């Protein structure tokens, strides 16, 4: 091999300039800088030095061959077949291929991988009559292919994947930041200009920022902790020379007194952080402490630098908590950190705006797929002035708070009389504040409706921040007890308008309604498991289903079924397509000590079940979705268009003296009176009677009819 080889180093977007400086420091020559990567020419030693010493690279690969005219399978095969692979590994060794990129002809990366593999083994068979084997887990050599339109390059993995995995951190928290990005944040923070200053991270997690800062201050090459690099398996590698190189880097290390402080509210994560640093040479200079960033106070007598990867929802969980946290941080920085410098990394610029600080500079970076910013602030006299003004983004937001107070006062006597603890307090009463606010005991659920196209996202986000802040203040509810969700207009293909999975948490609570207990979940689904607007319809069933055979179609979590059973129904059959909801329904029955062979839970497409249903029911509750893509309909089901077809099926199983309670949520729904008469049915509109006081402000929340045989 020649003394100068071609390489490419990869990094995160926004870190390229730092990596370029690092590459040049090895003596290598940069030939091209692109988004997320840098090409350079270097000797073997220079490339090895980069792998050992780089704080910003995620991977280093050696260029083998490339072409600007790879359009087809044959072009790719020819490119791979034409290279002399035995220069880097033999027929008895194993290899793996990592291929990415497509073009018009090569549309599948797995297919392209096979083409390259075939070319390599064919090349070896032609020269050695032997074929090397593939090893996906521990290959001797890893080949990397990158295709971009007609340009294709084949590399050999020089560093091994994941240079950010230094080897010093076996324990991670729930939301770690990659080490190479942490190093970039340390560099951009300005702390390295004077490492005698304190460095403080109020949300330190697994202490990655502090560890990287200490390694940079002590000039410890991060690769010295790694056990293996890919180049150690390549021909020409000399273990003795590599040992000398590592010693050279060790000799460049310095030691100095540092003042590094990390706080975090999660004791479990802090313990992992402590385990990460305990065997590092600078461990005694990192102080970790359990503390709530919402209650931030002074941490050092002399000014320093606050550097933090602020929470963005993964660890703290809810938006309300984040809004509360950023507001408190802004106040604490002004009060306790005068003359400090701040370097705050976040995914949401609107949250950083809640700090009410004027930034000095902003860097844009990527943290994996997330667009992020690093904002720098100087907490000088002007930036630390304590504002006597309200924390609201908009003065007009007080109208929302006043409406909350007015609505709560208006419902007070009804809530007390009916002993209602779960209710709707606000539902887009003021158009600019387009949310619904529901109370569940001591919890609050805020549903943010999608803003109209005339309102930009930034304005809607700021109003939501005011809504969250004012809801907590006005109703005296802790931000940790406020759940924020977003509702979007459902498409016709949505099988269920009622629930969509949003995350994997498990947060169940029990609520009570007219003597009936229900499990609700405020976090895991778009809806909670209990439709509050159907409260009076459920009570009607409890009061009128004694000794009746009851059918609940589109049963969801079987709350109406539970009321019927509590009311003494002779039998209750609940039908829903979702096994998850039916399981939930069984749990609701169990909560109320309801256990009988006459309670049936059937998982089925309700329309298909209804079309084939037999037997008779005295009371049927039918609350279909506005739209459904049921296979039983030639087109998707539309409740306005298809409700008479639905009633045709229902009539067959409705007892002569039976009752159908029909409900739906379609705005502007009109009953087909002629179609009803043709079926021999009559309907009584009871929509007003099923709207409790908390829903009287929105009379279109649902429609309800009692339908009987004429």
Compose a concise summary of this entry.
The protein is an alpha/beta fold and 710 residues long. It has 18 helices and 30 strands.
Account of the 3D structure:
This protein has 710 residues and is of the alpha/beta class. The protein has 18 helices and 30 strands. Helix 8 (267-277) links the parallel strand 10 and strand 11 (286-290). Helix 3 packs parallel to helix 4.
Task: Please tag this protein with its features.
alpha/beta; globular; seven-stranded mixed β-sheet; eight-stranded mixed β-sheet; 710 residues
Distance between the termini: 95 Å
Tell me the major beta sheet: 8 strands, mixed
Mean pLDDT over the full residue set: 91
Helix content: 25-40%
The number of helical segments is: 18
The tally of beta strands, per DSSP, is 30
Annotate the secondary structure layout:
Elements lengths: L4 E6 L5 H10 L3 E6 L2 E6 L1 H10 L5 E9 L5 H9 L12 E7 L8 H20 L4 E2 L6 E8 L2 E7 L21 H11 L9 E3 L6 H10 L21 H13 L8 E5 L2 H11 L8 E5 L14 E5 L9 H18 L4 E6 L2 H5 L7 E7 L2 E9 L19 H21 L3 E6 L7 E6 L2 E7 L7 H19 L6 E6 L20 E6 L2 E6 L13 H10 L4 E5 L5 H8 L4 E6 L2 H13 L7 E5 L2 H7 L4 E6 L4 E2 L8 E2 H15 E11 L8 H7 L1 E5 L17 E7 L1
Parallel strand pairs: 5-6, 5-7, 9-10, 9-12, 10-11, 12-13, 18-19, 22-23, 22-25, 23-24, 25-28
Antiparallel strand pairs: 1-3, 1-4, 2-3, 4-8, 7-8, 13-15, 14-15, 16-17, 17-18, 20-21, 26-27, 28-30, 29-30
Helix pairs in contact: 2-7, 3-4, 5-6, 11-12, 13-14
